[in-house]
Amino acid sequence: KPEVKDEDVDKRLETLRQRFGTLVGVDRPAAKGDFANIDLTAEIDGETVDSQEGVSYELGSNTMLDGLDEALDGLSAGEETTFEGMLEAGEHEGQKATVKVKVNSVKAEELPELNDEFAGEVSEFETMDEYKSDIRAKLAETKQQQATTENENNVVEKVVENASMEIPDAMIDEQVREMINDYARRMQSQGISLEQYMQFTGMTIEKLQEQSRPQAEKRIRTRLVLEAVVAAENIQVSDEAVDAE
Predict the structure, then answer these.
(1) Among residues 10, 15, 21, 184, which one has the fewest Cβ atoms lying within 10 Å of its Cβ?
(2) pLDDT for residue 40
(3) 33 by DSSP, 3-state: which?
(4) d(Cα 104, Cα 79) in Å, to the nearest integer?
């Protein structure tokens, strides 16, 4: 039986608080957690290889250049510095460059207070206590659903583990094809073709097929076992149940 702790509720509230935070300009040196608007210029052997202006960067996120966080820490708006960093993208990826960074502005995140007023703005409740109770109830429901699903999966895995069957290679090959086609469709919906994906990652269709094979066999074994359980237990599903689902 899953338990919802006070920390779970607090974490959910903090996530919501972050979502409703605002950035406010500050007249002080940048520190971890601040957002700096910066200009960057990278040079290799005196030649400019990359230049960006007006980039918003969160100090401490470590999401751009190696050494950028340390370089920005303590700089105020209008100040600049130079550091050595490894380029992580483009044709010079992996090469060390001399990077000049200038700070245009520094902003700090201002978070709302967790009070009744905040609860009224983000929910249908008038007090924070009522809102916390609602969050706790919803978290309990979600955790229970996750626990139920996990339990069902464990039971099915154990039954599959104890079952014996012979699966023809052709059946696995067909499942692999279906999985790869499904993967290709999902990537296509994001604007990337399977060919582009393989080109970017150095993957081949043979490697992809080999990687997919264990999961394909597992899916087949699970389906066959569940079909056998349905037949053995004479499980029937009414049209009403299907319509409801």
Answers:
(1) 15
(2) 92
(3) coil
(4) 8
Determine what percent of the chain falls in helix, strand and coil, rounding each to the nearest 5: 50, 20, 30
Contact 30, 74 (CB under 8 A): yes
Phi-psi region at 44: left, alpha or beta (left = phi > 0; alpha = psi -120 to 50): beta
Alpha-carbon distance 79 to 136, whole Å?
Answer: 47
| 67 φψ region: left (φ > 0), alpha (ψ -120 to 50), beta (else) | left
Nearest CA-CA partner of 171 in 161, 159, 179? 179
Cα–Cα dist 133/125, whole Å:
10
- Which tens digits make up the pLDDT trace of 46-93? 889 888 999 999 999 988 888 899 999 999 999 999 999 888 777 777
Token pair recorded at residue 121: 């703005």
Q: At what angle do helices 205-233 and 169-188 cross, to 10 degrees?
A: 110
| Whole-structure pTM value | 0.57
Predicted pLDDT of residue 71: 93
CB 96 within 8 A of CB 129: no
b/e code 145-164 from CB counts within 10 Å (16+ = b): eeeeeeeeeeeeeeebeeee
Distance (Å, rounded) from C-alpha 177 to C-alpha 184? 10
